[in-house]
Amino acid sequence: MSENRASENPDREHAVAFTLNGEAVRARVPARMHLGDLLRGAFGLTGVHLGCEHGVCGACTILVDGRAVRACLMLGVQADGTRVETVEGLTESGRIRDLQDAFHTRNALQCGYCTPGMLVTAAELLAEGEEAGDVPSRDVIRAAISGNYCRCTGYHAIVDAVAVTAQARHAARREVAE
Amino acid sequence: MKAPDFAYARPASLDAALALLAAHGEDAVPLAGGQSLVTALNMRLSAPALLVDLNAIPGLAGVTEAEGIVRIGALTRHRDVGTAETVRARLPLLAAAMPHIAHPAIRNRGTIGGSVALADPATEWPACCLAGGATIVLRGPGTERRVAAEDFFLGLYTTALEPGEIVTTVEFPVPESDSVWAFEELSRRHGDYALAGLAATARRNGAGLRDVRLAFFGVADRPVLARGAASALEAGDVAGAQAALADELDPPDDPATRAATRLQLARVILGRAASRMLGRQGGSQDV
Ligand SMILES: Cc1cc2nc3c(=O)[nH]c(=O)nc-3n(C[C@H](O)[C@H](O)[C@H](O)COP(=O)(O)OP(=O)(O)OC[C@H]3O[C@@H](n4cnc5c(N)ncnc54)[C@H](O)[C@@H]3O)c2cc1C
Ligand code: FES
Ligand code: FES
After folding, report:
1. Is residue B277 within 8 Å of residue B181, measured between CB atoms?
2. CB contact under 8 A, A7 and B9
3. Residues of B with CB below 8 A from A9's CB?
């Protein structure tokens, strides 16, 4: 709490405490440092890829409090009190195992630079579909990944991978329900 | 690129935020969703001495309805504006506009108050404010001002907001039961800023329309209420409305899109919006 209070007063550096991939972490962060640099530099989470650093390419996309956000457009100090998940955390938890397998089998990555951001963006879309109990159409998938640039695959294989994952999860849910 | 050096504070109340802004004058700027401001910092287009983060101030986010007014807190994220039950039921225009704003990760973080304060002429919320007859509520140290959307957007990235003031709420009157609306946007790629966009509202008048409000975006240095075109539409003259746009819009001329092209696109989407509001489907009014 005392650290939260400190942030109420202007400073060029602040102490932060947050949950990172399920673990409680602390750091002192310069105000000007964006969250992507904090995660890469202080915590070694180099799955947070940085492309443009102005919100356009989507390579840095992570989950904050369960929602996809640009790590380059949040300040590190703003992580204070939040729950942050990167592609490393999603991988270790096994929550996107099926999606990662689909990316592999469908050739949805080549150089891999866009892949962490694509996986995180798709993970949010799939979770929303599960909540709503439906399967996103290819158009919906394309709109969802419209903010993630891929310079290699031409996107088609990525849409395939997300679509088959959504269908498989939906089928599994129906089996459980029956 | 990396942002320049600056100080940061996250006040826990609106009064504390206003006091910080007052104490630091023009060197301090509010930080809302950061989806435009942090971009500008990273590109070193902006070099404030202090960012005053509004995200920890209680009560600035959320949608409520009372006495015929829908109140949207300034810190409500784009996505939460568009998915709020009240907005979907009362202000379907805004629910239709939301998916056109940027991409999911940016909608999860960017706020309606930030969009209104920034007043980018090619964006959705300012036009929705004009079309929906919204009032922008501003707080300064010890003052509150309420500014009609028509008096708020003054030019390119220019609004009635004074230094030291914070947008706290965007208020929309609940439309009458005979209201109709249309939202149209053309962009090169899903989520890009608009080449031409239109947020429109009207009331049914027999087979025609009255109280037509046509708020165009992406076709001038600010969102524009096209009054001449609206009168023509009220008189049932769709072609006349499309023709009137030549005098009412002032589209930017850039290397990728000529002004004449944007004007033409504006006419096309006006035809579509008119068809929709008149209850006719299809693009028969396209020019
Ligand atoms: C790749 C990309 C694509 C985008 N595409 C679109 C698009 O298609 N349509 C669209 O509308 N937007 C788009 N945006 C911008 C995005 O919607 C921003 O969220 C929005 O412009 C600003 O809102 P914010 O809350 O992020 O504000 P911030 O970036 O935090 O602030 C923007 C400005 O407003 C001021 N400000 C913020 N809140 C307040 C307040 N409550 N009171 C007073 N001043 C305040 C800040 O001081 C700053 O000057 C895009 C952004 C990116 C990065
Ligand atoms: S690095 Fe964040 S969007 Fe490109
Ligand atoms: S795989 Fe290379 S950028 Fe997408």
Report:
1. yes
2. yes
3. 9
Query: Is residue A99 within 8 Å of A93, Cβ to Cβ?
Result: no
Lowest mean pLDDT among A41-45, B3-7, B144-148, B282-286: B282-286
Whether residues B71 and B169 share a domain: the answer is yes
Q: What is the pLDDT of residue A129?
A: 86
The CATH number covering residue B22 comes to 3.30.43.10
In a domain, B24, yes or no: yes
β-pair type (B50-53, B28-31): parallel
Tokens of B88: 């979907």
Give per-residue pLDDT as tens, B116-139. Answer: 999 999 999 999 999 999 999 999
First to last CA, chain B: 45
For B22-72, how does the pLDDT look when each residue is reduced to its tens digit (9 = 90+)? Answer: 999 999 999 999 999 999 999 999 889 999 999 999 999 999 999 999 999
Which residue stretches of chain A have pLDDT < 70? 1-6
Q: Which domains are seen in chain A, by residue range?
A: 6-86 (3.10.20.30), 92-177 (1.10.150.120)
Is residue B247 domain-resident?
Answer: yes
Q: Is the dihedral of CA B285, B215, B59, A13 positive or negative?
A: positive
Residue B284 belongs to some domain of the structure: no
Rounded CA-CA distance B129/B171 in Å is 9
A contacts of B51 (beta carbons < 8 Å): 31, 75
pLDDT tens for each residue of B144-162: 999 999 999 999 999 999 9
Do B42 and B139 lie in a common domain? no
B102 to chain A, any CB pair closer than 8 A? The answer is yes
Q: 């949950």: which residue's tokens?
A: A19
Minimal CA separation from A43 to chain B, in Å: 19
A70 vs B104: CB contact, 8 Å cut-off?
Answer: no
**How many structural domains comprise chain B?**
3
Contacts for B177 with CB less than 8 Å, ≥ 6 apart: none
CB-nearest to B42 from A7, A10, A72 is A72
Q: Which domain holds residue B11?
A: 7-53
B104 lies within 8 A of chain A by CB: yes
